[in-house]
Amino acid sequence: MSSTANLLELKGVHTHIGAYHILHGVNLAIPKGQLTMLLGRNGAGKTTTLRTIMGLWQASQGSIHFNGRDITRLHTPQIAGLNIAYVPENMGIFADLTVKENLLLAARKASNAAQMDAARLQWIFRLFPAVEKFWNHPAGKLSGGQKQMVAVARAIIEPRDLLIVDEPSKGLAPAIINNMIEAFDQLKKSGVTILLVEQNIHFAKRLGDTVAVMDNGRVVHAGSMAALAADEALQQSLLGLSL
Q1: Residue-number span of the structural domain to which 141 is assigned
Q2: Whether residue 2 is found in the same domain as residue 75
Q3: 138 φ, ψ to 5°?
Q4: Together in a domain, 130 and 68
Q5: Residues 132 and 184 reside in one and the same domain
Q6: Sign (positive or negative) of CA dihedral 223, 229, 234, 240
């Protein structure tokens, strides 16, 4: 695939955290308009890769390009300003604020709820009915699945070119996971490029267009999600499991 078809590219990225060398030359391409799954065992370096893309940890070597622009040395607010949204594993919800206030914080063009884009808000309510239902409730009082919906809704309250989400299905009940799969499917159809770290293989199989598998701080496999889902021997060797 030519680099022009990729929205995000990591080339030879190394990341050190203190004395620890976590990423060992990560090469990763995220095709424009597709949903890419980043899979791997615990400790493979998936979350570190996301945090390095977002500038929360600095790459010690290699380059990160977004839309053809080198963002390797940019600070996190500058990266977010390029229309990249990041939902961390802990969701980053402000527990004492209402759902409405959480979304308002992310809506840069609105200083109050009345100024939020009404059509976009209705679209989000259709994706995540719980966001509308608990609009005036403190976010900290919501269930894990509802908080996850608020976290993703907050990330997409403004149009994004790239949405990066770390383990959206973690700890969620199967019915909530199915709702989340439907929502990400709708987001993908709306043209958003998505990078998901996921442990839930059902989730990965249903949504992924492309896949990258990490092990020991490197990408050890990249290709189509459908091809990986169909190859049990490859799944076993890369992930030690069957899809």
Answers
A1: 93-159
A2: yes
A3: -60, 130
A4: no
A5: no
A6: positive
Same-domain check for residues 66 and 168: yes
In a domain, 88, yes or no: no
How many structural domains are present in the chain? 2
Cα separation, 210 vs 190, in Å, equals: 17
CATH number at residue 185: 3.40.50.300
The three state secondary structure string of 11-61 is EEEEEEECCEEEEEEEEEEEECCCEEEEEECCCCCHHHHHHHHCCCCCEEE
Q: pTM above the 0.90 mark?
A: yes
What is the full per-residue pLDDT of the chain (243 aa) written as tens digits? 445 599 999 999 999 999 999 999 999 999 999 999 999 988 999 999 999 999 999 999 999 999 999 999 999 999 999 999 999 988 889 999 999 999 999 988 888 888 899 999 999 999 999 999 999 999 999 999 999 999 999 999 999 999 999 999 988 888 888 889 999 999 999 999 999 999 888 889 999 999 999 999 999 999 999 999 998 888 888 887 544
Q: Nearest-5° angle of CA 18, CA 19, CA 23?
A: 85
User: Are residues 167 and 236 located together in one domain of the fold?
Assistant: yes
User: Among 159, 186, 210, which residue terminates a domain?
Assistant: 159
Instruction: Give me the sign of the Cα torsion angle 182, 180, 183, 55.
Output: negative
Q: How far apart are CA 1 and CA 54, in angstroms?
A: 24
- Residue 28: inside a domain: yes
